Automatic annotation (TrEMBL):
<feature type="domain" description="DH">
    <location>
        <begin position="131"/>
        <end position="331"/>
    </location>
</feature>
<dbReference type="GO" id="GO:0005085">
    <property type="term" value="F:guanyl-nucleotide exchange factor activity"/>
</dbReference>
<dbReference type="InterPro" id="IPR000219">
    <property type="entry name" value="DH_dom"/>
</dbReference>
<dbReference type="InterPro" id="IPR001849">
    <property type="entry name" value="PH_domain"/>
</dbReference>
<protein>
    <submittedName>
        <fullName>Pleckstrin homology and RhoGEF domain containing G7</fullName>
    </submittedName>
</protein>
<feature type="domain" description="PH">
    <location>
        <begin position="378"/>
        <end position="511"/>
    </location>
</feature>
<dbReference type="InterPro" id="IPR040181">
    <property type="entry name" value="PKHG5/7"/>
</dbReference>
<dbReference type="InterPro" id="IPR011993">
    <property type="entry name" value="PH-like_dom_sf"/>
</dbReference>
<dbReference type="GO" id="GO:0007266">
    <property type="term" value="P:Rho protein signal transduction"/>
</dbReference>
<dbReference type="InterPro" id="IPR001331">
    <property type="entry name" value="GDS_CDC24_CS"/>
</dbReference>
<dbReference type="Pfam" id="PF00621">
    <property type="entry name" value="RhoGEF"/>
</dbReference>
<dbReference type="InterPro" id="IPR035899">
    <property type="entry name" value="DBL_dom_sf"/>
</dbReference>
Length: 534
């Protein structure tokens, strides 16, 4: 069982878009844990789900990221803790990677291996067989390099060292999964693949008949249609979040000591952790190229069909991964938008409407979670523009979705909030939006969302607005169902190209939305007649 602060129940509620510590109501304060009145007791499984980084944006804000940040801790205590951690690191023993049977083969060519065993193919008639063997050897040696120089380095030097430190009560709040995902599974799968290929090559070299081909189809089928692609997919889905989590950890002194110690190990070959973490993504995209090379050099027709089908399977896996990454990125981005977009009530949004305090409870407006639902809505375009008002210019931020346009006013807070850690931001957020978040700001909705079928965009000639000092201006009109204009926004872009881009994006979005609506209407009229028996 674990304790989860009741703040988790208010994920969709608006305060200022961020969470604040309730220091005045704390009843228990331990390292990494704060208990407040009304906190819920839930199972560990539920706690893991609720605290998932995609669902809870500021889950790190309650944890003391570095024990020296507590008030009252003197500099000498920090130095002692640093010294103790360095002493702990000095006792870490890294196993040498040379113990693997295939270690000496990863930098050799196929000709060198065959020549060593005095079995080099010199007959011209066997030249095609030799090309196929070379292509297979390239797959084997590249997998050896991937396993030994990347996966094993990540596991033995970085992950195992972090585990060792945590057993000695250092870096206890660093989440291994968020940083390394299923690295353990990936390493075991790659090792099994390398050993299987090595066994086939060893049997072939030891055999008396070298004119026969390598029997590798069964191994390729087993791994590429089995766990190899699936384990890489799991890792790749976590990669983007892992990189941003790493960036947030880099700001800590204790993690910096650990990272520096690991990266100085000679087996890292001067590669830094981000360069090692990206290796599985690069490897997955290279598999189809290696399989295509084997397929091109294969001579047997049945064998070619098998290899081609395996290559297609891997390419489909990559396409599926791209779709999952896009969906996950969209989901994560909408979660952040729900946090920073503030929806003011009707009486704050338009001063023409007077609602007595005693009647305000009647107006139950939809929450941002319902309006910004990532399951049926996509963000097409976004950016910063200037809105011309009667007496001033206002910085606004526009969000163009696939069914409506949202005009918001950016608000920046001079006092930064602790939860707006740049390392925890969504990777796909624009620099402008990231700047707003870093300053603890928000985007307040100026008016109701403008449905694309009620939106009209018009270019404004410089002659008409030059007297107001406007350049690169265009007009957005919001019309009701009777085609009456109920709102208008005179917007100014930084350059003429930005203005044209915005107008093109809005026009295209309107066209696509109109077509989709017409298609839905047609499908409703062409539905088959309902059976009389129902």
């Amino acid at each position: 069982m674990g304790l989860v602060p009741s703040d988790l129940t208010s994920l969709g509620q608006r305060n200022s878009g961020f969470y604040e510590h309730r220091q005045s109501s704390v009843v228990l304060n331990l390292p990494g844990l704060e208990v407040f009145p009304g906190d819920l007791l839930v199972s560990d499984g539920a706690a893991d789900y609720l605290c998932h980084p995609l669902l809870l944006l500021n889950s790190e804000s309650r944890k003391p990221t570095w024990p020296f940040s507590k008030r009252g801790v003197q500099g000498k205590d920090k130095q002692k803790r640093t010294s103790d951690m360095e002493n702990c690191l000095s006792s870490v023993k890294i196993t040498n990677f040379r113990g693997y049977d295939f270690y000496s083969l990863k930098d050799k060519t196929w000709d060198e291996v065959m020549e060593t065993h005095h079995k080099l193919l010199t007959n011209q008639s066997l030249a095609d067989l030799r090309k196929q063997q070379e292509a297979m050897w390239e797959l084997f040696t590249s997998e050896c390099t991937y396993f030994l120089d990347h996966l094993l380095v990540l596991k033995m030097i970085f992950m195992n060292t972090l585990k060792y430190l945590q057993t000695h009560e250092y870096l206890l709040d660093v989440d291994l999964w968020r940083l390394f995902a299923n690295l353990e599974e990936l390493t075991q799968t790659s090792l099994g693949f390398v050993n299987s290929l090595f066994g086939i090559i060893k049997d072939y070299v030891d055999a008396s008949d070298i004119s026969s081909s390598l029997d590798f189809i069964s191994v390729l089928t087993k791994y590429f249609r089995g766990s190899l692609c699936q384990s890489h997919q799991t890792y790749c889905l976590n990669y983007s979040a892992a990189i941003f989590y790493l960036e947030s950890l880099r700001q800590r002194d204790d993690f910096g000591i650990y990272l520096k110690w690991c990266e100085q190990n000679e087996q890292c070959r001067r590669l830094h952790l981000p360069e090692l973490l990206v290796a599985p993504l690069q490897r997955l995209t290279r598999y189809p190229l290696l399989l295509k090379n084997i397929w091109k050099r294969s001579m047997d027709s049945a064998e070619k069909i098998m290899i081609y089908s395996i290559k297609e399977k891997v390419e489909k896996s990559i396409r599926d991964l791209e779709g999952k990454v896009k969906w996950l990125d969209n989901f994560q981005k909408f979660r952040y938008l729900q946090e920073i977009i503030v929806w003011p009530p009707l009486w704050d949004r338009d001063k023409r409407f007077f609602i007595p305090e005693c009647l305000k409870h009647i107006f139950k407006e939809h929450t941002a979670e319902n309006i910004l639902s990532p399951t049926n809505r996509h963000l097409l375009y976004e950016g910063k523009l200037t809105l011309a008002e009667s007496t001033r210019f206002l910085d606004v931020y526009l969000f163009l979705f696939n069914d409506f346009l949202l005009v918001t006013k950016t608000k920046r807070n001079k006092k930064k909030l602790g939860g707006s850690d740049p390392g925890l931001m969504c990777p796909s957020l624009t620099p402008e939006l990231q700047a707003v978040i870093k300053e603890g700001g928000s985007c307040t909705v100026l008016d109701q969302p403008i449905p694309l079928d009620r939106l009209v965009v018009k270019s404004i000639e410089p002659l008409h607005v030059s007297v107001f000092g406007l350049r690169n201006a265009f007009l957005i009109q919001h019309e009701n169902r009777y085609r009456q204009c109920i709102a208008a926004f005179l917007l100014q872009a930084q350059t003429e190209n930005i203005k044209k881009t915005w107008m093109a994006q809005i026009t295209t979005a309107i066209s696509c939305f109109t077509k989709s609506q017409e298609t839905k209407k047609i499908s409703l009229f062409t539905l088959p007649a309902e059976s009389s028996e129902i």
